[in-house]
């Protein structure tokens, strides 16, 4: 989810279906709902007939049923979207053929240096032919295909397995051998006329995954170098589900339905939002059916950090990715008077001509007779244009950069919280975001100086100790389930230079005349495609590996975070991706479809509802138990303590699969705080052939946790002197979430 893109509100479409009068349903109550019905039927035509029959039954009118339907899903799973009244939705939920009914909502959209930083240089060893056969499905805001990152020079025709289409339309004349497919979804009132990216987010994420190398790329001189994706030979298939208003659940499910059937290998989705239930979450539903077809879905964790339990997209079959910074951060110098010199945050390419400019504040520039707004000091409706013109404006709270630019302001300095300070944004005039302490000093200076002065300089690169987890990156535990650790991994997501669209200005303002094919963005939206590319890179060497094997390889070979974070693994999971090491992990933790079904059983799903989802006549009692604390062969281990008086006591059952060469002996090594006693049995595993499996237990014991905010971080590492297969272990009290 990119923080620099417009923050999309989560709202339910208010579009109403116009039907003839005299029907039982009140037109004003009709809203878009999704009716999920589980696994796909034998043919989509049968599904469409069934959907119409169900709608006719609840509306009691054939014509209303025909007009109500928005979309039928039937290629990869079964369901439909329709305009329903609350009463009709409730009656459909009671139908034995329906798994869930939930209202459509709109979810949020969540590099020259980043790939080098994670030890994946341009010269990295590649299996180019296999990489060229990999198709990454991008569910996002479309693509600006004229960007140099998507040039198809040297590419052959699409892989023979590709079954998708290329929909042309406004500002999108066709695909090429790099971008081999494109679909746009017009659902109800939403009219995505083509896959052309008029937001910029989709082009950015797609180029991080698979953009071809482009030399001398920069954002007006900032970050100059070779911009490229992690798997530059891979193909891109675009599914436009987002626009400036957000990402519709109806469109997201339609895109999953198509992408799975089209033949993609990896799905990358930098979109997210809350959902009350796994079967009322379009991303959890779509990614589950993708997993069943051998397709790994990589998702952004969200940008609501550093609060605990703020993470989204946390289903165990999803690769959930948080964001880190590299050793190059961008900072904007700010000088106030003679004594305040600081580094703010923004992506500022403007060069102001003078050494100093008059400085004022939103409170000082208020219109005569207006009441000051202490929570939003630069409310454009209260500002006096004559008091703003030619000055740098200090703001405590939000502001509209286009409006103050129109008023003639020279620039703006914003007081920002810590979660925004790692991000950075692009504005239509010189702007810098400063921390609270500097903001207080600026206010004091303004109140004590007759002729306050200031200046905002051009953004510069600064070396930093890295990686560290971005403050905005959402933290675990996952609010819907506390039995496994999330996020899974972290990847670069701060100040990433990648492709952009020329269909909007770089700041999004109509007053900005800067249009560029590269731009810096920050967010877990940027870290997600790094992980997607890493997964594709591993798959290019091991096309036969399961989704869980690829995910395990990325997690157990991840590098540890150098800069301490108080939320430890809830911030960074298993660590920072290391794609080269992940190609040869030595051992992997595999999960089958039955493992995920067992997980759903343990979460309370059962009976007909579960059978419709999995598409089989099995039930919870027929799924063999795995045992242990979490009953799940996950590459990490999590222990939740319900109180501060019980001792820590848990046993985890785990099975690893050998994916090395020849014979090998692995020894277990444990790192743990002195208060935890961790025993691994057996502590030696001997493998004689590839794909051989060995099981072991991890027993964790300790005294009661001392405080409601105590986090005990440990790890288990299997090593044969060549490979290091590391699993994080985290103990936490449930009370930590009450803070």
Automatic annotation (TrEMBL):
Cite the active-site annotation: 140 (charge relay system), 201 (charge relay system), 525 (charge relay system)
What's a Pfam family this protein contains? Inhibitor_I9
According to its UniProt entry, this protein's organism is: Theobroma cacao
Q: What is this protein called?
A: Cucumisin protein
For this protein, the parts annotated as crossing the membrane are none
The organism's lineage is: Eukaryota, Viridiplantae, Streptophyta, Embryophyta, Tracheophyta
Which first-to-last residue range defines the signal peptide? 1-24
Annotated Subtilisin-like protease fibronectin type-III domain ranges read 631-731
What's any GO biological process attached to this entry? Answer: proteolysis
